[in-house]
Every structure is written in C-alpha cells, then in structure tokens.
Design goal:
Helix content is 70%, strand content 10%. The chain has helices spanning 25-39, 73-82, 103-118, 123-133, 137-151, 156-161, 164-167, 169-180, 184-240, 247-261, 263-282, 284-296, 300-319, 327-336, 340-357, 361-368, 373-385, 388-437, and strands at residues 2-9, 15-22, 42-48, 50-57, 64-70, 86-92.
Length: 446
C-alpha cells in the first residue's frame, strides 16, 4: 500500500487536503480525480509518500545517516531541524522497493503477539518489541505505521485493512477485528493457527503436486533433447553408410527427424499450453474453473476439499457468536479458504438461502454442494443441540488430523510413481543406446 496526499480548492476558494492509501499510485490518483469531480474540487497537487535518505549531525558529533518517509523533501528537513540537527543532505531514495514479507515472518509476528497477549502484556508494548526485533524491512515499517496510527486513536479494523497487501485480506481483517473484540488473545491464537495450517498445506501440496510435475517436465525436455540432438549424430552415420537399422533405433530416428523438421511446432506445443493455462488461471473465470477442478482430482482432490472445510470451520468457530449473527462469520470463513469455487457457492447459494428464506445452517450448507456428508451430519447435530460453534471446532480438528496423515501417504505414493516413471524412461533410453551399439557394418564384398 502507498500513502498519497492531495491538496485542492473548493469552489468557494477554501483550501482542503486529504490522505488515502491504495495499492498503486495510479489507483490513488484515479480515486482522487473521481472525488474532485464529484465535489467540484480543483486539484492543486498530488504527492506520494516516498523514502528519503538523510545525513545529519549535531554540533561536533560524527554525522549519521538515516531513512525517513515523507511526502516531500521539505517535510524531512523541517522535522530534523526541529529535533536540533544540522541537515547536511536529504535525497529521495532512487530504488524504493517494498516486497511482501515472507509468510513465515507474518506467522511469527501473529504467534508471538498471541503468546504475549496471553501474558497480559499491552498491545502497544508488544508492537514496540516486535518493531525492534523484526528484520524484514517491509513488515517492520508496516508495524511502525500501524502503531503510530493506533496511538492517534485510529480505528483498528480500518488501519489493518489498509495493509492487507502486506498481511493478506483475511489476516488483516482478523487482526483489526481482534483489537475491537473482548478477547484479543483468542483471535490472535486462532489466526496464528490458521496461518500455520495454510503454510503447512501449501508446502505439502507443493511436495505432492508441483515438485513432481516440474520433475516430469524437466525429464520430458531432457528426453526431447536426447532424441532431437544427441541420438541423430550417431544414428545418421549408419544411414550414411546404408546400414540396416534395428526397429527401436529406426523408430527413434523417425521421431528425431520429425522433431528436427518441425522444431517450431514442437516448441509451440511445449510452451503455448502452459502459458495459456497460466494466463487463464489469473482470470476470474479461470481461477473459478481450476479451483473447482482441483476438488475433483482423484486422491488429491479429496484432501484439498477436506482441508478447505477444515479452514472454513476453524475460522467460523473463531467468529461465530450465535445464530442471530451467523452471516458475517460464514462469509469471512468462505473467503478465508482461498478457493474461489468454495467461496462462490457459500456466497451465492448458502447465504442467500439463509437471508431470503430463513433456512438453517445445515440446509444452506447442503445446497451449496461443497460440504461432505460427514460435515453436514455434524452440523445437523450441532444445530439441533445448539452447539454449532463447538461442532465447527471438532470438524476442524478431525479433518486436520485426517488430512495430515493421508497427505503424507499420498506424497510417498507420488514419489514412488515419479521414481518409476524415471526408471521406465531410463530403461527405454538404455535399450535404444544398447541396440545402437549392436549395429555392425556390412562385410565388404570382394
């Protein structure tokens, strides 16, 4: 998020100014222009808060260098002079890149905060401690700004949501909500648990799907290189001397000739589909398609599906306070899953049924088609006994235990399958090479 300040004049000549935060300067400028058009304002200037490198000294002390964010150079100079420093130089930082902090750093921040809150330490002191210890520049600067805004009495929810590009939408919402709730430590614990499970799931999914796919793709490229470049150099020597080729060698040479003769077609077939799928997955409809597809993949799909239900139930348990206020927790829990299809079914099927028809939780969840029979059965029992909140926690813990155990077995199975594929390919290449080695030239005819 970047902070932008604008100065403008009203139609009566009165000067006004305002600040806003947006993901990009372009979006901020567009919003300011719409605001000016709506209220007939004349924009005087639009300034983006940037980083400035300063060099200062006090009396005969050694000069020191530092960094400060401000809307312009004059702000930095005036602030330093008020502190009694002699300003030697102030220059705008040329390359001011703020990359999103690693997920592990955010998890550590939330987890440590939860532990310190549990020890009744004031949140302002917790932020001060973490600001001094956190090494990631982006996260440190973000927490510093949040601490300053909270001290000024800013709304915690609005403050954290301004930095959702750093924390993530769900995390920012939960941390902002925690400051306004009566049980801040509990919400931080639940958020830390959610982030840890999300990180663990992504890591396991990467081991189960992404790593094997990359391995197979690299193996495929290696085979193409062998058949298209290395093998022909030897095989064509036999053709040149009119030597009869064995069947495997002849078939491989035919494939090689096709690859060399249609090199651009082959490259297009290799590169275009992944690029197309990647671009399609970035669109709204593409993400919806793939998020729905991944649930239906054999073996892995079942694990992904149950993990989504686990995340939903864990967040729902944290936010649910009673049937009268169930809509908002359900909506936020659906967003927390990170699956566009799951979220769509909850928002477009379940929630409208609850609002328009007054349907119960079990009936609405069943209509969405994204919950398992086990989950629906447990929610039905919880709804009848008035223990929906505890039922959600039980389901989350149950599916966590099941998916962790089964995912380890799936990863081992996939690793065995990949090893077998590599073995089969290597045996095939070895057979072709061995057959080529048995070729002997014809005896010379006297």
């Amino acid at each position: 998020m970047i902070e932008v300040r604008f100065n403008a004049f009203k139609p009566n000549g009165q000067a006004i100014s305002g600040n806003l935060s947006e993901p990009t300067f372009k979006e901020a400028k567009g919003k300011i222009n719409k605001l000016a058009e709506r209220h007939q304002l004349k924009i005087k200037s639009i300034e983006k808060k940037s980083a400035y490198i300063y060099r200062i000294k006090r009396g005969k002390e050694k000069p020191i260098t530092g960094e400060q964010k401000a809307f312009n150079k004059e702000e930095v100079v005036n602030a330093l002079r008020k502190l009694g420093y002699e300003v030697l130089s102030v220059n705008k930082k040329l390359f001011d890149f703020n990359f999103k902090p690693p997920q592990q750093d955010i998890v550590s921040y939330v987890k440590i905060s939860a532990e310190l809150l549990d020890q009744k330490l004031p949140y302002s002191e917790i932020l001060t401690l973490l600001i001094n210890d956190i090494e990631n520049k982006t996260l440190k600067e973000t927490l510093k700004q949040i601490n300053n805004e909270l001290k000024k009495g800013a709304d915690s929810e609005a403050t954290f949501l301004r930095y959702q590009t750093v924390f993530g939408k769900f995390t920012a919402y939960m941390l902002g909500l925690a400051s306004k709730s009566g049980n801040m430590a509990e919400i931080y614990k639940a958020t830390a648990k959610f982030l840890e499970r999300q990180q663990e799931f992504k890591k396991n999914l990467k081991s189960a799907l992404i790593t094997p796919l990359v391995t197979v793709f690299v193996l495929f490229l290696a085979v193409i290189f062998y058949i298209g470049y290395i093998f022909p150099e030897t095989a064509k020597l036999f053709v040149k001397f009119d030597i009869d080729l064995p069947p495997l060698t002849a078939a491989t040479l035919t494939i090689s000739d096709f690859l060399i003769g249609n090199i651009w077609l082959v490259m297009a077939l290799i590169l275009i589909p992944p690029i197309f799928l990647w671009q399609f997955a970035r669109t709204k409809s593409g993400r919806l398609f793939f998020d729905r597809l991944i649930i239906k993949i054999p073996i892995i799909g079942s694990l992904v599906h149950k993990t989504l239900i686990e995340v939903f139930c864990r967040v729902f348990y944290t936010l649910y306070s009673g049937s009268a206020e169930s809509i908002e927790p359900i909506r936020i829990a659906a967003e927390a899953t990170g699956n566009a299809y799951f979220e769509q079914q909850i928002k477009q099927v379940s929630i409208p049924m609850m609002i328009k028809r007054g349907a119960g939780i079990t009936e609405s969840f069943e209509a969405s088609g994204v919950f398992t029979e086990t989950a629906l059965s447990r929610f039905h029992s919880g709804e009848e006994t008035g223990t929906v909140k505890n039922t959600a926690l039980q389901l989350a813990n149950y599916y966590e235990s099941e998916t962790v155990f089964r995912l380890k077995n799936v990863i081992e199975l996939i690793q065995v399958m990949i090893a077998m594929i590599i073995m089969i390919v290597m045996i095939g290449l070895t057979l072709v090479s061995a057959e080529t080695a048995t070729i002997s030239p014809k005896s010379p005819v006297m």
